[in-house]
Amino acid sequence: MEPQKRVAVVGSGLAGLATAHLLHNDRRHRFAVRVFESGTSLSLDAASISIANPELKTEDRVDLPMRAFAGGFYNNLKALYDHLKVPYHSQPFLFEFAEAPKAPATKETSYFVHASNLHQLAPRPSTVGTIQYLVEVLYLIVCYGWFSLCCFFIAPHAGETLRQFLGRTWTPRRFVTYYLLPLISGVTTCPHEKLMNFPASDLIEYKRRTHRAPHFTVSEGVKSVQDLLIKDIDYELNAVVKLVEPQEEGVNVWWEQAGSGMCMERFDIVILAVAPDVVGHIFKPLEHHMARMPTAIVESVVHTDRSVLTETRPVRQALKAHSAQHIYLRTSADSETKTESHHVQSCGAIVTTCPYSPLDPALVIHSARFTRVLRSPESQRIVNAIFTEGEQSHADDKSVPQWKNGEGNVWLAGGWCWDGMVLLEGCVVSAMRIARDLDVEVPWLQKMRNQFEL
């Protein structure tokens, strides 16, 4: 029997853990896997928190950031959960759109409510008159219908941004500012201005694949996923990887652990399942190009300050009738258009992401900041150059890296490591790609093929 290849997985988000799980469970037992995490706990569930639910007399696991996933787009993520037997359930959401007050003395206005997954007209906010609301509904039918037609029948140009696509298709600006961007920024936890610089193909593909699809949430939080993926796998916490150096034989990994000083170990294979800025810092072949990958620091706060909500009786009745979760999207269109989302949990706590409204410090339970990898036409070219298979297709293009995924026995994994929205589906796809490169079976892939054949 051949000796096992030593594998170092740097990062313990979903991409790192899914890759480690696949290699560790290789049927031929060819890999000895070790995960390195710089934090005090595995990062997939590191920001989440358990909160008592007085009504059910249980504890709810509140995931940070929110980990809801939609059918159609998250096919591989859903297949992974099915393989692990992770319980998840369909979750209807009630999206309430509100405009932040333009002056301190004025009140904000809740102008529309959208019932996701229910496929029916949501209740009218009590702050909006009947005729005004009917006019708004008609406006939305026209705008949303036009936008949907554009997504399905107008192909984006190569390198076209979302801003350019929306302009080229004459999508109404008010619809974009007060409906489209608040919804998508809630999904991507990304500011409006940054989102408008995304490749148009990202949003169009997401829209096509999630059209009228149900939404799901993991019933026991992503900690249940984390526990199953890391089972029987060695891992190091507080282990900060400083440098990854490919050698003629193997890859040197320099890392530092609190209290133990600098260490160096040689591995046969290294998986970098971290954000682009970290990749560029520890892996010199990609230092220049990773610096051109945009990122942003996003904050999520768990609290019980209900002053951030405009709770009306029709909305409360609809939430109770359909067991829906309330997501309150407050948009400010002052000097910079931005949206903060308030996700009301079943335990009564509120998760506010990208907050700009003041919160009562006495009512804050927990807060977390995390790196959000953004997208741009330039970063799209960089990623596609790294993961393009076959011969170097960009040999004369100095704006993209010539390094290919897997060269020097170093691979990249993460939600940003594919040509699409930086979401959990990309994490699973990148893990599956590494498994394929190393001739490791992906156990849920054949089940997916059988389902599609049926």
TrEMBL record:
<keyword id="KW-1133">Transmembrane helix</keyword>
<keyword id="KW-0472">Membrane</keyword>
<keyword id="KW-0812">Transmembrane</keyword>
<dbReference type="InterPro" id="IPR036188">
    <property type="entry name" value="FAD/NAD-bd_sf"/>
</dbReference>
<protein>
    <recommendedName>
        <fullName>Amine oxidase domain-containing protein</fullName>
    </recommendedName>
</protein>
<feature type="transmembrane region" description="Helical">
    <location>
        <begin position="133"/>
        <end position="155"/>
    </location>
</feature>
<dbReference type="GO" id="GO:0016491">
    <property type="term" value="F:oxidoreductase activity"/>
</dbReference>
<dbReference type="Pfam" id="PF13450">
    <property type="entry name" value="NAD_binding_8"/>
</dbReference>
<dbReference type="InterPro" id="IPR050464">
    <property type="entry name" value="Zeta_carotene_desat/Oxidored"/>
</dbReference>
